[in-house]
C-alpha cells in the first residue's frame, strides 16, 4: 500500500493497517490530519488528539447511533442497538445510569481474587513447558471469565463468546451474512438466558436488566439483548488486547521488564503508559447534520472514525509520543475515550490488566518473544495481538 492509499483509501480492516497502524497514523497526522476514505461510505478519519476530542465532545453534530463502521451500511439502519454506546442524550444518560452500580469500586474489588486465581491457574498450565502464547493461552481467558461471571453465564460458554466477538468485530462489518448469522445465534442464546432468569431470577446482570426500569418503563427485549451484546463486545476483545499488547512490550523490552520487577510500585503508572501507547479501541460517530469541520465538508450520514489510539500518539499532545516511557508522569490519554461515552468499564479493565501483568511478572523469570515475525494483530476497530509466542 502506498502513502497515498492511506489518505484516500483508508481501510481499518486491511492487513496492512493491522500490522502498520502506528506508521499510518503518524503519516496522516503529518500530511493529512483529517483524511476521507473512498471505502466505507466516504468515512472521515481524524487522527489529531485535539480534533478527536472536539468530535467526541460534540454530540449534537456527531451521533453515536452507529459506533462501528461497516461497509454495507449504518448499524442503526439495521435496527441494531447496543446501548448506551450506540445512543445519544437524553436516552444515553438514562441507560448509562442504569449500569453504573455494576461498575462500582466495591464490585470491582470483589472480582480481583477471581482474576488473580485464574491468572495463576493459567500460568500453572504452561509453566513447565517454558512457552506460552500470550494472547491465546493467557490474555483472552481473563476478560471472558469476568464477563461470564457478571452476566451469570456458565464458564464453559466462554469459547462461544470469543467466537461471537471475533465474528462481530473482525468479520461482520465487511460481510453482512456473517453479521446476520451471528446476531441470530446470539439472540437465540440470550433469549434462552432471559427465559431462564424469568423462571428463576439470579444475582446477575441479565436478571437486573429484566427487572429494572428506564424512564419508568421496563426494558424491551431488544434493549436487554443490546446491553448484553455490548458488554460482551466492550469487555472481551478490548481487555484481551490491552493485556496482550502490554505483554508484547515487556517481552520485547527486557529493561522495562526488569525495572517493573525491581520497582513494583511503578506498575500502575506503567499500565497507564501501556494503555496510552497500545490503546486498543477505535470508535466511530455519524454526522447528524451537514457541517464543515476544520475545512472538511461533512455530510449528514457520513461515518467518522475516532481512532483514540492515534490521538494517544500525537506529538502535539504527548512528548515523544511514540516512545513507551513507563514512568511518564503527564498522561491524559484517550484509551478509554473522552466525553459522555467515556468507558464505563475502565476501572474493571485496569484491575484485570494490572492483575494479569503483575501475576506474570511475579511468577515467571525473564520472558521474551519467541519469534517476533509470527506476532499477528487483529483487524478492525479493536486492535491487539492475536498470536504472541513467548518463551522464558
Ligand atoms: C482495556 C480495556 C478497555 C478499553 C480500552 C475500552 C475502551 C472504551 C472506549 C474508547 C469507549 C468509548 C466509546 C465511545 O466514545 O464511543 C468505551 C465505552 C464503553 N466501555 Fe470500554 N473499554 C475497555 C474495557 C471495558 C470493559 C471491561 C467493559 C465492561 C465490561 C467496558 C464497557 C464499556 C461500556 C458499557 C461503554 C459505553 C459507555 C457509554 O456509552 O456511555 N469497557 N470503552
Protein model, in words:
With 392 residues, the chain is mostly helical. It has one domain (3-391): Cytochrome p450 (Orthogonal Bundle), CATH 1.10.630. The protein is built from 16 helices and 14 strands. A hairpin with a 7-residue loop joins strand 12 and strand 13 (385-387). Helix 7 (141-151) packs antiparallel against helix 11. The longest helix has 24 residues, at 176-199. The chain is globular. The relative contact order is 0.18. The model has no long low-confidence stretch (mean pLDDT 94). Bound molecules: protoporphyrin IX containing FE. Protoporphyrin IX containing FE binds at residues 56, 64, 67, 84-85, 96, 147, 230-231, 234-235, 238-239, 242, 279-281, 283, 308, 335-337, 341, 343-345, 348-349. Residues 56, 64, 67, 84-85, 96, 147, 230-231, 234-235, 238-239, 242, 279-281, 283, 308, 335-337, 341, 343-345, 348-349 line the site of protoporphyrin IX containing FE (HEM).
